[in-house]
Amino acid sequence: EVQLLESGGGLVQPGGSLRLSCEGSGFTFSNYAMGWVRQAPGKGLEWVSVFSGSGGRTYYADSVQGRFIISRDDSKNMLYLQLSSLKAEDTGVYYCAKDLDRGLGSYFFDLWGRGTLVTVSS
Amino acid sequence: DIQLTQSPSSVSASLGDRVTITCRASQGISTWLAWYQQKPGKAPRLLIYTASTLQGGVPSRFSGSKSGTDFTLTISSLQPEDVATYYCQQANRFPLTFGGGTKVEIK
User: Fold this and answer.
1) Residues of A in contact with B36 (CB under 8 A)
2) What is the Cα gyration radius of chain B?
3) Does residue A81 sit in helix, strand or coil?
4) Is the pLDDT confidence value at A54 over 80?
5) With the C-alpha atoms ordered A106, A108, A111, A112, is the resulting torsion angle positive or negative?
6) b vs e for A23-42, b when ≥16 Cβ sit within 10 Å of the residue's Cβ?
7) B41-74: pLDDT as tens digits
8) Does B86 touch chain A (CB under 8 A)?
9) What is the pLDDT of residue A53?
10) Mutation choice for A interface testing from B94, B97, B102, B103 by most A CBs within 10 A
11) Per DSSP, what are the bridge partners of residue A11?
12) Rounded CA gap, A106 and A32, in Å?
């Protein structure tokens, strides 16, 4: 079955850190760009970061640049997001998402995980 | 950054009605636009990409079009399972951005 499964969310204090993981299965993980999209409670979707499928390029939203780091381990079909210097406004559900196209990618997302909730609160 | 402005923010329509949602980009994005459907408590689902290409498995009552920097998602005949929030997303350049969403309800 083609799927993505996120883990690693939880409650963390402001200024703290957290590492999210996403395991892909049912497709050739290394062929695709992969990304993270988040959604604050009751709010819309916000793109966070993407790791290209070839060339190893990474991109970040301004709101997380310098605080979050995206990485991937294609040998394990895993995508990661290291969250640091967390703020209350980082609270939300974090979705892992797969690019529609192989290779360079389109940066449209055709497969999403169920999400993992990150709560930043003291 | 490219801003995407969706309208209306919510729409209530009867079963079988035609529903139209608009997404206006703040600058030209060619056809680098997608539409997603999100039901409560669920992950988004890709409906349409490159402005008008229907994703596999999506019912044909969904369609997308483009006119300049205005993009439209149309549901030709509203069904109960279409109750959801719909988002547009541009992939023309980074940062990727989403519209604010349109909530579709049954009258």
Assistant:
1) 45
2) 13
3) strand
4) no
5) positive
6) bbeeeebeebbbbbbbbeee
7) 999 999 999 999 999 999 999 999 999 999 999 9
8) no
9) 80
10) B94
11) A119
12) 10
